[in-house]
Structures are given as C-alpha cells and as structure tokens.
Amino acid sequence: MPERTESDSRKLLRRLRDTLATPGKGQDRLDRITHLIADSMGTEVCSIYLFRDADTLELCATEGLKAEAVHKTRMKLGEGLVGRVARTGLPVNTANAPGEKGFRYMPETGEEIYSSFLGVPIQRVGEKLGVLVVQSKTARQFSEDEIYALEVVAMVLAEMTELGLFSGDGEGMRALHKQPVMIRGNVGQEGAAEGRVWLHEARVVVTNPVADDPLTEIDRIRAAVGQLRVSVDDLLAAESLDKDQKQVLEAYRMFAHSRGWLKRMEDDIARGLSAEAAVEKEQSATRARLEQVPDAYLRERLHDLDDLSNRLLRILTGQGKDTGAMMPENPILVARNIGPAELLEYGRKLKGVVLEEGSVGSHAAIVARALAIPLVIHADRVVTEALNGDAILVDGDQGIVHLRPEETVARAFRDKIAMQAAAQHRYASLRGLPAQSTCGTVTTLMMNAGLMADLPSLEGSGAEGVGLFRTELQFLVRNKMPQRAELAALYARVMDAAKQRRVAFRTLDIGSDKVLPYMKPQDEPNPAMGWRAIRVGLDKPGVLRMQLQALIRAAKGRPLTIMFPFISEHAEFVQSREMFLYELEREKALGHIVPERVEVGAMLETPSLAYAPRAFFEMTDFVSIGGNDLKQFFFAADRENERVRRRYDILNVSFLHFLRHIVGRCEETGTALSFCGEDAGRPIEALAFAALGIRGLSMRPASIGPVKALLRRVNLSEARDVIETAMQDGAVTVRPALMAWLDAQGEG
Ligand code: PEP
Ligand code: MG
Q1: Is the CATH number of domain 181-202+326-413 3.40.50.620?
Q2: Which residues place a Cβ less than 5 A from the ion ligand 2?
Q3: Which of 46, 60, 363, 378 is catalytic?
Q4: Cβ of 100: how many Cβ atoms within 10 Å?
Q5: Which pTM does this prediction carry?
Q6: How far is the CA of 604 from the centre of ligand 1 (A)?
Q7: What tens digit of pLDDT does each residue of 484-534 get?
Q8: Full strand arrangement of the beta sheet holding 400-403
Q9: CATH class of 214-317
C-alpha cells in the first residue's frame, strides 16, 4: 500500500471524525460528510443512499447531484448501479457508468454527465445500511487504494448510523432501531406475550471506529488475538474431546492462528481504523463472502471465522455475554438460535422467545413448550433489528413479532391477551369438572410435562394426571450424564407434586434432533428415522437401566407408570418390558421397596405398531399415540420441515381411518388408549379423536380448558356420525364437516 494513500485515508478519517464530533442535526452531518469525501477524493460527486425500508434505497445526501433530488430519488434493491452494490454487498467501479449493464438514469439528479462511478456498501457486520458513491466527469477507473479508502469511510459511516448519528430530524431518514418493525416468522409455540427484548448475546457496540494512534491499536489487536488463541488452544486441550470435535476445533484454531487475518486487520488499523472497527470490517467481508458461497463445508468454515470475530470483539470491548445490563421486566428472549440447556437456564423468567433460526421440533422448541411460553421461529433479522430493552410483542399464534410497536398495534394486542386471559378464567370454573360430553362419555384429559416447574400446572389446569413426562429434558439440561440418585430424587419430587395422580414417565427419547451434549453425535443421513429412542436404549442399555432403577426407587412403593418411546415392533416392547421387570426383581433383591403396582405401556409412533400381532396389544398395559411422530411417518412429512409439516391435515380421512384401526385393535384386547401429540390440545382435533373412541388425551396445560369446554358441550356419538358421513362422502378431511356441525349448534 503506497504511503501516500495510507496517510490520505487516515487524514480523511480524522476529518470525518471531527465533522461528526461537531454538533448538528443528522442531515447537516450527512451534508458535511458528502462534501468532505468529495473534496478529499477529488471527485465532483459524493452521495449517500440509505435504506428506507428493507428493499428501498433513498438518496439522503449529496455533494454534486441536484439538491432537490435529496429524499426524492429512490430505487429498489438491485435496481441500477447503486441497487446492485446494495444487493451484492460488493463495490462497483467503472469508468463508463452509463455503458454499464443495469445502469438506470435518474434525470432528477443530473448525473448523466458523470462518467466514472465508484459505489461501496455501507454495512455493519452483514447488516446492510446503504451505499456510498463517488462520481466524476473524467472517465477513469478508481484505484484499489481509492476503493479501499472509500470502504473504510463507509464502514465508519455504518458505525455512526448504528449509533443513530444521522437520524432524528425527519425527512424520512431511517432511524435505526427506532422504528416499529413487524417480522413474520413461524409458529413454534402458541400464546401471546408483551415484554422487553433481552438479547441472548448482546450486540457489541463500537463507539470508536476511528483511532489516532495506530501503534496503540496494533498492540491492542495483537494482545486480543493472543488471548483468543490461548482460549482456543485451551478448548483443544480438553481431554473429553472426541476425534470429530477435535477436527472441528483444529479448523477453528487454524483461523485463530491465521497470519493473513491478523495482517489484514493490522492494515486496516494502519489506514486509520480502531482495532474494533478493523475486526468488524473483516467480519463484514466474511459475511459478504458467506452469502456468496454455495458449498456447505466452506460456509461452515466461514461461520467459524465469524464466530471468532465475535469473540475477538468481546475481548477488545470487554462486552462479554454478561454486559452488566439488567434484564428488563417481562423479558422476551431474542437470539439467533439457542440450545435447550441455555434456554432452561433462563427458566420461568422469560415471557417469550423469538429465534432467527430454530425449528418446531428442536430442543429449544420443546423446552419453550415445556415452559409454556410463546415461541416464534424463523424471525428473519430479528437479532439485527432488536436492541436490549426494546418493546416487543410476540404473537405465537400467528408466528408474528412486533418490535417497537405503534401504540395502536400494542393496544389491539393487549386486547387479545386480555381476551385469552378471560377465556382461561372461564375455563378455571371447569377445573374440577370431568370432560363429560352430553352423551355421557367421559374423556380423561392429562397434561404433558418434562420439568419440575411444570408440575404446579397440574392444579391450575385441572389435568387428571401427566399423560407424557418427557424425561429427556432432564438429560438435555445437564452437561454431563445425571447420576441415578439424582434422577431418583427428581422423579420422586415429580410424583410428590402429582400427589396421587398418575404420571406416565416416558423413558429417554434421545437421538433424532435431541442430542445430549455429552454423547457422541451420530452422523446419520436421516436421524428422525435413525438410531433414536428405544433403539438406543436397547442397543446400549446402560443408561436405560439406570433410568429404570431411578424410577423404581423414586416410586418408594407408590404405583409407577412407564412407557417406552418409538416402539416399532412387538419384539422391541417385549425386550424393553423384560428389562424393566428384570430391574424390578433386582431392586427387590437389593432390598428396595418396589412399586405396589406397575403399568408398562408403549408409544405408538410408527405405523408398523398398529399392525403388530395381537400378543402385543395383550401384553401392553396401554398404548399412547405419539401423534407428532406418527403423523410425520404416516404422511412422510418431516415434522421439522416448515415446507411440508402443515401440508396434511391430521383430520385427513386416511389418517382417521388409521386411528380408527388403532382404536379397534385396542378395543379387541381391552387395552387403554390415549393420544399425547400436540394435536390432542387443539379443540377440533381433540373432539375428533374423542369421537373416534380415544378416551385419554394429553396436552399442554393451557389447552385443557378449551378442550374440556368443547367436549362438555357436544354429543360425541353425533360427532362420530358427522365424521363417518364425511368419510363416506369422500371428503379429503373431515374438518369442514365438523366445523359446520359445530357452527350449526352455535359452537363454531
Ligand atoms: C410425539 O411424537 O407425538 C410425542 C409425544 O413425542 P415427542 O414429541 O417428544 O417426539
Ligand atoms: Mg415422539
């Protein structure tokens, strides 16, 4: 890099900083900056375009173009050369702008006389904020050094925009993190909540993008990189790592030790950036590359580099995870993604969760469900848009998030919450009453649980017991395998809290998406159909045995109900049950009190089990339909794949035929049958299941009220006739017929 340009860019940055330090309104500042850049770069034109909304750019300040075009000229993302820079995140440098593909002439600006064009993105770690452009009459290509200098200035502008230096005086300028934003994501867990944003990983705020003393900054970056390298080396030295984890970390280490990375940051510092800004500039470049790379492996590696940049920024700014900020009241957690253990650490404090990634069947979703808080997933850009403490509304029913909402939106939302609360209040009056339909049939309503903290809901919801206790949550929240005594104590507390009510403990259902942090992840092409649940338990019985012993001890003589997940054939059930009976005998022989009564059931989650020999139905004490899995295998529609998971209605006639078959098999042998998938908690679905003869439904606690209210008002045999008629009439799904029937009774 020639010495001349180096000092030029430093000089330019210093002038820029002085300009920004002078008090003034946002627009004045922008005007001064365009003037200064044009002057320093020797161009006739300098313009700043900022995003007005996600895909519209607006000319916000200019030196050289017609002043009346400011705040008038707009373009869409990808439109013209400016739009191209914004879309690709890459500079455009041309000596003949009008001859360039995609050039759009905007007469109001008077730019037709300018031949050369250099545009660079104004972006901050992947967040696109606008475009900075210089133009001149003489046809020339801008040099590498000039491009570099403009990029550095753009980066400082991005920091300043982030700090809100250009906003606040109307004129339609985009005030970052100030305006209301509505984000449409997907439903992870129903419910509605109002609160304040709590970022899982607080944004690192860089307040000093320009630095005077490069030597000090270089010392700082070297020290920080040194510290980073030590921490990565420490990670690698951990003894518990297996070969795969080591391999991943080796790649990580290679980046941390990369001389090129440090050198590029040092070059940026030499050109006038602070150490923090230099890290961010590199990070922005990485993110821009990430967007272009189709190769999954390379993308993973670039993610590593992105992660390292984050760590480095935290070291430099001292803004760790714990920024010292106080968690607001009614916190709503906002994160790119989060693991179940981390989510559980927040526990009941949270009012809701919003994730940029995540999936419906993920651990985090299961935990959010267990915590009974609304969850919105796939909320695009929420982490970039939200600031700690921002007002936020989470509509888990629609999968919508309102950030910094207008008062009218907030008011309507509060009305909705109030209506839901009033309904819950009405349901409370049904708490002690049975779900007895007008025909006299009684359906047992139970709740799903997985945490100690769920148990108080037993009283509040009026559930008659726990139809599904997901024991894996206790395993997922730890970073090492729990001990038998620990588990026994926990299960005993669950039984204590349930008083005399029945709790169906489902043995460990791991594998698929539920990977224990301390178990080696399996590299399987299709984990949902892979080595999971009872398959793991039977192949590697150590943990299952330990869990069974813990359950027997926890019962301390009380009745015990257990069920095995994902049983696909009779033999698997025989083997699992024998294992349990063996442990029971062993415990007895060891002198422990054993349960006075045991019930051993199977979850029916694969279609094959519905066709098991009669001996299976005779042997099992009960069958519990795991509708979430059963539905995904019945329709071959992945429960975690947003594109297909809602494609087939569970009230589809084929599925109901299948359910009827299961009901029939259980009736033949007098085997108790229940349904514990999410659909059991939806009133219309619950009505259909009950009408088909499923006498037990297990659901999240908040659903018990609405389901009970509906079941108590209807005649199940009439509902059954409606279903049968629709089935005979060749309907695809019986939903419309059921809804029409309810409507006719004023129940719709
Ligand atoms: C199911 O599959 O319906 C079920 C209850 O189990 P899980 O959702 O935990 O897989
Ligand atoms: Mg399941």
Answers
A1: no
A2: 605, 626, 629
A3: 363
A4: 14
A5: 0.68
A6: 10
A7: 999 999 999 999 999 999 999 999 998 866 777 677 777 788 888 999 999
A8: 181-184, 400-403, 391-395, 192-199, 331-335, 352-355, 375-377, 186-189
A9: mainly alpha
